[in-house]
Write a structure and sequence with these properties.
The complex is a heterodimer of chains A (279) and B (787). Chain A has 279 residues and is an alpha+beta fold. Chain A contains 11 helices and 14 strands. The radius of gyration of chain A is 19 Å and the shape is globular. The N and C termini of chain A lie far apart (43 Å). By secondary structure, chain B is α+β, with helices and mostly antiparallel strands. In chain B, the strands form 8 sheets. Chain B has a 7-stranded mixed beta sheet, with helices on both faces. In chain B, strands 7-17-16-15-8-31 form a 6-stranded mixed beta sheet. A 4-stranded mixed beta sheet of chain B has the order 20-28-29-30, with helices on both faces. The chains are: A alpha+beta (279), B alpha+beta (787).
Chain lengths: 279, 787
């Protein structure tokens, strides 16, 4: 389990990274934290000619606090969120989820942009950021584009990256004070990949009610208008309004055939909702 | 007991280097000019091997079966009647029979370069149907792993002790119970460094081994060398559990090439090799029936057991150690009158099954203890009531059971009752009457086993495997400064023997343990031994060290008496001195006199000096029987299927404990592995024989947050046959947990009428069992309605 021979570059800015990515004669792989890519290199599942380590790019570690949203550089680590080195605009949702990602050693190096681009269906960021309505910004040599997090993932281990493009930042909307969220993941052991994730957000002041079922075989199932599942968010106990049949139907419609998988995912979402009043 | 003797919970001598990261493991060894080896392994489970193409750029760096002229395959026969012999090739020729089987050895300056070379080798493989299911493998239509056998059965055994007498019992409970294939997971994998020492004319092979002398014997057979031409050094070993008792084809490959290539070679197993090609174990299947009276008294056990032995018989324990043992140990600690058991060791296209801590006992305990709980449910009794009806009683000890196992001593019912008292069964039954606030279900379960350990010649000569343990030898030698050197052929892979064997010698000689040095893990320095396996070191090496220390005491007394001008009959050894009626001399003075001032000694002095190599066997070599009762309290989440262990109690009896703290450590480690078997560890294969887990992301091990702190209580019933009354306890911790946890889960699921009968008990299996039970219930309701 040793990687193939590859070259290594650590550019200082996004322009230089994009220039390296543009070389069509080489197989180039970006490395943000290396927590998934490292093992894949060792197992020779990935055999690049050139590895571009983007953790030296200052812009990708920057945080921009805007009026209604916050923009996080792609190389912000899970621990940066967990330890509140990045301001929290999500009523505790992101720091709380960060604390449950894998193990601390992974959180120290693993990055939000890296995780989203790796596109593992069981990853936490994918589910919670989809729930919060976050967007990713991609940049190529000919310009940039911004798309919802859930659209960035095309399928398991496949992100919507065009040739020569890279993810530079994640934009997270600021929640209002009345917002309530919940997150539940089912793992067999601490730090293990999730088998089912349920997440939801109600933010009555902003008219948002979203639910996400994650850790599926592929993309998370996003229910963008979830009032029928979680109500308008004003009730004391949100879980009383939970319609498990509707949730099960949504999951089945998304193609999850196995009844036990379906049950587990419905329960995960219901428990996420139950957690709202303790959040 | 003295402060350092037998019974003292001393901190370990080896901790200073191990806890500071200063241990020396195979992976730490750097020799000048050393090159790395990587192997081309079979990607298929079963295939004919065609042409192997080596690019010109790699010539001289790649070796195949065609190069290994004169090298013999690994053969581990069993003397049991009907055993079919397999030959495990060192490098594959004609056929591969498991994923990961070695096809070519590749050498590079670094492991990465060796892997580059391996990636350039092309192998033509013609895939054959894989034998992946041990039950189907016994059917006539099955593909064959070894064609010339005519079937896939290494060995079938059968025992019947009047089972017909049980058939009229009012309670008859039958179940199909199974344990998953697992992979042992020592922190350190396998590894080998080999070179040819031209001065000593010796192949020197470093390998993390539990049994360096057996590796030497096996290697000598494969390579056609004299024993004197091989030296095996086993440095610090980072966990073994059985995996490091096996002679691997990799060892033979490196030994062969090291004799020819002129530089040292190294192979360090990586985790993918370890999981997919190496350390498999545990896959058992039982069809078991218990016959009992309404009061829970067992009338008989009837069982068909199948063990997936994998493709080859591994050296030295053979392919049928597990299945053949099942028949003899299935009756457990119980006394019942009728018994029948048929076993099959089945060959499949998987890695050879290897003995893992507890060996067959973990599966046996799971099958028997789960069926006993099923009997209790059928009879409307508490599970412990059924056990107390059937456990061998202390007044029956020593006891010869239905398979002629000789239980040396113990009070099994006391262990069970103490464990249940610690958990407060009554309070838990009360708690179960009310729903838990979090919606989970509480269950309590227990299991009890006895563990034959340190069994010797009379037992193993019957198995007829390549090694049979005899007298265990130790060398004790007083050094010129009055210190003591101990040399033993067993080897520690975590057992703390540098401390515990020093405690044994200290008990007899009173020499400070800081001045007692244990030499082990090197065939050049130590007496021949079958090594560390079968929970035998405390009994056998401990007994040998005690015997050799007594010899030293006798020798020292004679010199001491002369120096004291006393009669040898009037002196004693105490506190590192020879004490006479009028004074004493220290071991230091005695040693100084023998080695450096012989002029002070008479001509009649014993010429053996202050050194002794001597063997030990217990009074009876049929083994010690330690035992333990485990009780688990679990919470089961019926919606998600999660199982949490809320509390865990162990009451164990290992006879006299040399170092209780070390014994506790053994129990904690074993428990962690038992929890792995119960809830997490599973090596799955697809229908083409592909292992489906190749990293620890896919192969789950319990971590620190999954292993509760157990409450451990000790009983100390001495063995009548051993030094100090010690018993072997090394494996017990890993035997009982799957059964105790399994019974607790089934207890929790009683409201659903659901039952889990396969380990690991994963969330999916919990949910499937609940689902199946509710379907059964509604079908029943429909039938009733129709009626």
């Amino acid at each position: 389990m040793k990687p193939v021979n590859f070259d290594y570059a650590r550019p200082a800015d996004v322009g230089a990274a994009l220039a390296l990515l543009a070389d069509d004669s080489l197989s180039v792989k970006l490395m943000a934290g290396g927590q998934s890519l490292g093992p894949m290199l060792n197992m020779r599942l990935v055999q690049p000619d050139l590895l571009v380590d983007i953790t030296g790019i200052e812009e990708l570690k920057r945080v921009e606090d805007r009026a209604n949203e916050i923009v996080l550089g792609a190389c912000i680590t899970h621990a940066d969120i967990e330890d509140l080195r990045v301001p929290d605009v999500t009523c505790g949702a992101l720091p709380s989820v960060a604390r449950g990602i894998a193990y601390r050693a992974v959180r120290n190096r693993g990055t939000m942009g890296g995780s989203l681009t790796h596109a593992d269906p069981s990853a936490d960021w994918l589910s919670i950021l989809s729930t919060l309505g976050a967007k990713v910004t991609l940049r190529g040599r000919s310009g940039g584009r911004t798309i919802p997090v859930e659209d960035y993932m095309l399928g398991a281990l496949e992100a919507d990256l065009r040739p020569g493009e890279m993810l530079v930042s994640i934009t997270v909307p600021k929640l209002s004070r009345s917002a309530r969220w919940g997150y539940y993941k089912s793992c067999r052991k601490t730090g293990e990949f999730a088998h089912a994730i349920g997440a939801f957000l109600v933010d009555p002041d902003r008219g948002v009610s979203r639910a996400v079922i994650g850790a599926t075989e592929s993309r998370p199932i996003v229910i963008a208008e979830a009032t029928h599942l979680v109500g308008d968010g004003k009730a004391e106990r949100l879980d009383l309004a939970f319609d498990s049949h509707a949730a099960g139907a949504a999951i089945e419609a998304a193609g999850m055939a196995d009844p036990i998988d379906r049950q587990t995912h419905v329960v995960a979402l219901r428990r996420a909702i139950e957690r709202a009043h303790t959040a | 007991m003295t402060e350092q003797g037998v019974g003292a919970s001393l901190l370990r001598k080896e901790d200073d280097r191990l806890l500071r990261g200063r241990g020396q493991f195979v992976g730490d060894i750097r020799l000048a000019g050393m090159k790395d080896v990587a192997f081309v392994r079979s990607p298929l489970a079963h295939a004919k091997v065609g042409e192997i193409r080596i690019p010109d750029s790699c010539r001289g760096q790649v070796f195949t079966a065609a190069d290994l002229e004169g090298v013999k395959p690994i053969v581990a026969v069993s003397g049991l009647a009907g055993f079919k012999v397999s030959e495990q090739p060192i490098l594959a020729f004609e056929k591969v029979r498991q994923v990961g089987e070695l096809i070519a050895m590749c050498v590079g300056d670094t492991r990465a370069k060796a892997e580059d070379v391996a990636a350039c080798v092309e192998v033509d493989l013609d895939e054959l149907p894989a034998v992946h299911d041990m039950i189907k493998a016994r059917e006539a239509a099955s593909a064959l792993v070894h064609e010339h056998w005519g079937d896939n059965v290494f060995l079938e055994t059968f025992v019947d002790v009047g089972i017909e007498a049980a058939f009229d019992a009012p309670i008859k409970v039958s179940r199909e119970i199974s344990t998953a294939r697992q992979s042992m997971a020592p922190m350190e994998g396998r590894g080998t460094v080999a070179y040819w020492d031209s001065r000593m004319e010796q192949l020197v092979l470093y390998t993390g081994s539990q049994m360096p002398h057996i590796v030497r014997t096996g290697l000598a057979e494969c390579l056609g060398l004299d024993h004197a031409q091989i030296r095996i050094i086993s440095p610090d070993v980072g966990g073994g559990f059985g995996y490091k008792g096996i002679l691997l084809p990799e060892d033979v490959c490196l030994g062969w090439l090291a004799m020819r290539c002129g530089h040292p070679l190294r192979w360090i197993e990586d985790r993918r090799e370890h999981l997919t090609a190496g350390a498999n174990c545990r896959e058992h299947h039982y069809r078991i029936t218990a016959y009992a009276d309404r009061d829970g008294k067992l009338r008989g056990i009837d069982c068909e057991a199948t063990v997936d032995s994998g493709a080859y018989s591994s050296y030295p324990f053979s392919a049928c150690l597990e299945a053949a043992q099942v028949a003899s140990i299935l009756p457990g600690p119980y006394d019942f009158p009728a018994y029948r058991c048929r076993t099959w060791s089945v060959a499949t296209n998987k890695c050879p099954i290897l003995p893992y801590r507890g060996v067959a006992r973990t599966g046996v305990c799971y099958a028997l203890e789960l069926i006993l709980d099923a009997v209790a449910r059928e009879a409307g009794l508490e599970p412990h009531e059924v056990r107390l009806k059937n456990l061998v009683k202390p007044e029956q000890m020593p006891f010869d059971n239905i398979t002629k196992k000789h239980f040396d001593s113990g009070d099994y019912p006391e262990a069970l009752e103490r464990a249940l008292a610690a958990m407060d069964l009554k309070a838990i039954r009360e708690r179960q009457k009310h729903p838990e606030p979090d919606g989970r279900l509480i269950g309590i379960g227990h299991s009890i086993y006895c563990e034959q350990a340190a069994h010797g010649t009379s037992v193993y000569s019957g198995w007829g495997i390549p090694m049979v343990p005899g007298h265990e030898q130790a060398t004790a030698r007083v050094t010129p400064d009055g210190g003591l050197e101990l040399r033993v052929g067993v080897h520690s892979h975590g057992q703390s023997m540098e401390t515990t064997l020093a405690q044994v010698a200290h008990e007899i000689l009173g020499i400070d343990i800081a001045k007692i040095k244990l030499v082990h893990g090197d065939t050049e320095y130590t007496p021949y031994s079958t090594g560390s396996w079968g929970s035998r070191c405390a009994v056998m090496a401990g007994g040998a060290v005690a015997t050799a220390s007594r010899e030293i005491a006798g020798l020292a007394k004679r010199i001491g008496a002369h120096l004291l001008q006393a009669d040898p009959n009037d002196v004693e050894v105490a506190h590192g001195k020879v004490v006479g009626p009028t004074g004493s001399v220290t071991f230091e003075e005695i040693a100084h006199t023998w080695y450096l001032r012989p002029q002070d000694l008479p001509m009649s002095v014993d010429p053996r000096g202050l050194e002794s190599t001597i063997g030990f066997k217990p009074v009876r070599d049929s083994g010690t029987f330690s035992y333990a009762a485990h009780v688990a309290l679990v919470a089961v989440d019926p919606e998600i299927g999660d199982i949490e262990i809320l509390d865990y109690v162990i009451v164990e009896d290992g006879g006299k404990l040399i170092n209780p703290m070390v014994v506790d450590g053994q129990i904690y480690g074993g428990l962690a592995q038992g929890i792995g078997t119960a809830l997490y560890e599973e090596m799955n294969f697809d229908a083409s024989g592909q292992p489906l887990a190749s990293t620890f992301a896919d192969y789950l091990l319990p971590g620190p947050t999954e292993v509760p702190a157990p409450r451990v209580d000790h009983m100390e019933t001495l063995s009548p046959y051993t030094e100090f009354g010690v018993k072997g306890i090394g494996e017990g911790g890993a035997i009982a947990p799957p059964a105790a946890i399994g019974n607790a889960v089934n207890d929790a699921l009683r409201p659903y009428g659901a039952e889990l009968l396969r380990s690991p008990m994963t969330p999916r299996r919990v949910l499937e069992a609940i689902c199946a039970a509710s379907k059964e219930k509604s079908a029943e309701a429909e039938r009733e309605e129709a009626a």
